């Protein structure tokens, strides 16, 4: 694997580990999700350049648009959890236990 | 909920599902999955109850992670093979990551923890959408890539799902959680057979959708959210209680009813593929889920609660005619004699 691909791979892996091991706040989970999407944006932007397929040039913009919508939704959920549970602490989300 | 918002959400759900199941390119499949996630979030959180908001947060986090993992696995495959075709997923790391991502999306064990809680926090009709329509795009992706996926891993996920779905459903009293665990164990059956005969997965999914829709629509009509409500629901619509019993037994897989067909065909196919111990294990594990289906059927038809006699008759003011429930009930109990026809149609 080339050093460039390895850097994107490790960026995504570390962001996903940050998402898996977040402990206190919901917003840190949303930040890790956003950084996963960002680490996918750069490889998608490089793909039409290194493979000479200009038809693929729209894809990073599409991906960015959807990830922005998703982040907006996540922030709306953050506000909603602050309204109903009082804060964005994850240990407050315990109303639905088995 | 505002009718315009509900229309936009429902149409977006159908559009997102159609985009994913008709796509050849990974980016389009990912787009459809994202549209589905974004569209169902207002539907889950529409009542603004704390439980609904919590369910929405859990659903959103898991599904977004899984979508990002799907995009990353397709990117890794594109780096090594130079193309984005869904059916040509050949890189082994990509296959592993895709299997894990689809397992998160579907709610297979060991990624099942969000599913009962999300179903419990949403209304019965939203729970129906979450159990049936939202499972269709990930199963389609799995069907398209089933040739290159690791069979041992899929068998392990299937047996673990059937075990956990059966075992954890035994202690539940809320009907939505019971149906969540029933969904997990049915998904286990679907994933078991996907690398040997994908058409049986399609058949199992269609029949599971019909039976689960019947149960959810019937429960929504008599507004049963827990087992104790099930005891007194016979006064509202006596005929519906009888059909709910038959549909639950069909979900359990008892022979003269439709639910027996997928189990029978899957066991037959597994035996043909020299996987007889696996077939035995998965059949024994579905006995666990039989127990909680029988308990639901028992509570709805065979027992009476110790109430006084003036509680036994409720005022029945609006007798609604519910055609979809009737059609789905007929399909989910009587399709077994048509199985030769259905096998040739797949």
TrEMBL record, chain A:
Q: Which InterPro entries match?
A: NADH_UbQ_OxRdtase_chain4L/K, NUOK/Mnh_C1-like
A GO MF term: NADH dehydrogenase (ubiquinone) activity
The record's listing under Gene3D superfamilies reads: 1.10.287.3510
- Listed GO biological process terms: ATP synthesis coupled electron transport
What keywords tag this UniProt record? Electron transport, Membrane, Mitochondrion, Mitochondrion inner membrane, NAD, Respiratory chain, Translocase, Transmembrane, Transmembrane helix, Transport, Ubiquinone
**E.C. numbers:** 7.1.1.2
Q: Enumerate the catalysed reactions.
A: a ubiquinone + NADH + 5 H(+)(in) = a ubiquinol + NAD(+) + 4 H(+)(out)
- Any single Pfam family the record assigns to this protein: Oxidored_q2
Q: Where in the cell is it found?
A: Mitochondrion inner membrane; Mitochondrion membrane
Q: Signal sequence: where?
A: none
Topological type in the membrane? Multi-pass membrane protein
Q: Where are the transmembrane segments?
A: 6-22, 29-49, 55-80
* Record-level GO cellular component terms: mitochondrial inner membrane; oxidoreductase complex; respiratory chain complex; transmembrane transporter complex
Major localization class:
mitochondrion
Q: Which family does it belong to?
A: Belongs to the complex I subunit 4L family.
Spell out the PANTHER family in the cross-references.
Answer: NADH-UBIQUINONE OXIDOREDUCTASE CHAIN 4L, NADH-UBIQUINONE OXIDOREDUCTASE SUBUNIT ND4L
The protein's role, per its UniProt record: Core subunit of the mitochondrial membrane respiratory chain NADH dehydrogenase (Complex I) which catalyzes electron transfer from NADH through the respiratory chain, using ubiquinone as an electron acceptor. Part of the enzyme membrane arm which is embedded in the lipid bilayer and involved in proton translocation.
Task: Provide the protein name.
Answer: NADH-ubiquinone oxidoreductase chain 4L
Q: What organism does the record attribute this protein to? A: Gallus gallus
* Name of the gene: ND4L
From TrEMBL, chain B:
Enzyme Commission (EC) number: 7.1.1.2
Give me the segments passing through the membrane: 96-115, 127-146, 152-171, 178-196, 202-220, 240-258, 278-298, 319-343
Q: Name one GO biological process term.
A: mitochondrial electron transport, NADH to ubiquinone
Q: Give the membrane topology.
A: Multi-pass membrane protein
Q: Keyword DNA-binding on this protein?
A: no
Residue ranges of every copy of the NADH:quinone oxidoreductase/Mrp antiporter transmembrane domain listed in the record: 23-288
Q: InterPro entries, from UniProt? A: Complex_I_Subunit_2, NADH_DH_su2_C, NADH_UbQ_OxRdtase_chain2, ND/Mrp_TM
Give the UniProt subcellular location, in the record's own words: Mitochondrion inner membrane
Q: Which domain of life is it from?
A: Eukaryota
- Catalysed reactions, semicolon-separated: a ubiquinone + NADH + 5 H(+)(in) = a ubiquinol + NAD(+) + 4 H(+)(out)
Tagged with keyword Iron: no
Q: Name one GO molecular function term.
A: NADH dehydrogenase (ubiquinone) activity
Keywords associated with the record: Electron transport, Membrane, Mitochondrion, Mitochondrion inner membrane, NAD, Respiratory chain, Translocase, Transmembrane, Transmembrane helix, Transport, Ubiquinone
Q: Which residues form the NADH dehydrogenase subunit 2 C-terminal domain?
A: 290-343
A GO cellular-component term linked to this record:
mitochondrial inner membrane
**Hey, which family's this protein in?**
Belongs to the complex I subunit 2 family.
User: Function of this protein?
Assistant: Core subunit of the mitochondrial membrane respiratory chain NADH dehydrogenase (Complex I) which catalyzes electron transfer from NADH through the respiratory chain, using ubiquinone as an electron acceptor. Essential for the catalytic activity and assembly of complex I.
Q: What is this protein called?
A: NADH-ubiquinone oxidoreductase chain 2
Primary gene name: ND2
């Amino acid at each position: 694997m080339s050093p460039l691909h390895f850097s994107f791979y490790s960026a995504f892996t570390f962001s996903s580990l940050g998402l898996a091991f977040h402990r206190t706040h919901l917003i840190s989970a949303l930040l890790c999700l956003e950084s996963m999407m960002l680490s996918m944006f750069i490889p998608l932007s490089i793909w039409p350049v290194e493979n000479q397929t200009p038809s693929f040039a729209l894809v990073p913009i599409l991906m960015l648009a959807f990830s922005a919508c998703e982040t907006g939704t996540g922030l709306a959920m953050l506000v909603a959890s602050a309204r109903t549970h009082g804060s964005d602490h994850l240990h407050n989300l315990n109303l639905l236990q088995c | 909920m505002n009718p315009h918002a509900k229309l936009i959400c429902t149409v977006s759900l159908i559009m997102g599902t159609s985009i994913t199941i008709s796509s050849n390119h990974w980016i389009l499949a990912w787009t459809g999955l994202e549209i589905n996630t974004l569209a169902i979030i207002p539907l889950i959180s529409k009542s603004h109850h704390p439980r609904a908001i919590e369910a929405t947060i859990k659903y959103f986090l898991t599904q977004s992670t899984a979508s990002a993992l799907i995009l990353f696995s397709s990117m890794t495959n594109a780096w090594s093979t130079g193309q984005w075709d869904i059916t040509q997923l050949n890189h082994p790391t990509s296959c592993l990551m895709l299997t894990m991502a689809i397992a998160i999306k579907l709610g297979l064990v060991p990624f099942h923890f969000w599913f009962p809680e999300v179903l419990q926090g949403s209304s019965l009709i939203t729970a129906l959408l979450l159990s049936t329509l939202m499972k269709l795009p990930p199963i389609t992706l799995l069907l398209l890539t089933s040739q290159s996926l690791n069979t041992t891993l899929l068998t392990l996920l299937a047996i673990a799902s059937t075990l956990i779905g059966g075992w954890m459903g035994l202690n539940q009293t809320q009907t939505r959680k019971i149906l969540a665990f029933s969904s997990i164990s049915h998904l286990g059956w679907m994933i078991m057979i996907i690398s040997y005969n994908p058409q049986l997965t399609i058949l199992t999914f269609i029949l599971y959708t019909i039976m689960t829709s019947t149960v959810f629509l019937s429960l929504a009509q008599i507004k049963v959210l827990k087992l104790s409500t099930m005891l007194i629901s016979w006064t509202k619509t006596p005929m519906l209680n009888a059909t709910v019993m038959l549909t639950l037994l069909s979900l359990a897989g008892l022979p003269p009813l439709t639910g027996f067909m997928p189990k029978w065909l899957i066991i037959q196919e597994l035996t043909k593929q020299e996987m007889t111990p696996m077939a035995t294990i998965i059949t024994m594990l579905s006995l666990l889920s039989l127990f909680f289906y029988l308990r639901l059927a028992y509570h709805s038809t065979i027992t009476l609660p110790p109430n006084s006699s003036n509680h036994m008759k409720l005022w029945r003011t609006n007798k609604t005619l519910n055609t979809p429930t009737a059609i789905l009930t007929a399909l989910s109990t009587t399709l077994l004699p048509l199985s030769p026809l259905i096998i040739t149609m797949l």
